[in-house]
Input
Amino acid sequence: MNSGMSGIEHIPAWAALPVALLLVLGASIVLIGALGLLRLPTFYQRIHGPAVTVTLGAGCLLLASMLYFTAAQSRPVIHEVIISVFILLTAPVVSMTIMRAAVYRDLRARRLDAGATAGDVYAIADSPKPRRPGEPD
Output
């Protein structure tokens, strides 16, 4: 009785175990990133959960997909490599752009408590006058 399955019952054991492990690992990593997005208190802390973990989680899921379809079709399947390169190139850029937009928004709104001025990297325009190079403290 063929119920239209894609042949998952015919995948060899050498491929089934790594595929299952990569799927569980990738899903767990993505879940941890989503929980970080939900649980962390400020925007600047929340952005780190998805920014870091989604790339690694997606990589595990894409590797599992590549292994599965390579074993199921008995030929190398590399479409996932192109997707992985795209994710690895775009995810950090998008995360940094979102963070910079938030910093710009908070500095323009003069929100001292938002976290944009933490670490003394950025300063609010109405803050005390910045020192000039060579000026004594």
In short: The helical segments are 13-39, 43-46, 48-73, 79-108. The radius of gyration is 23 Å.
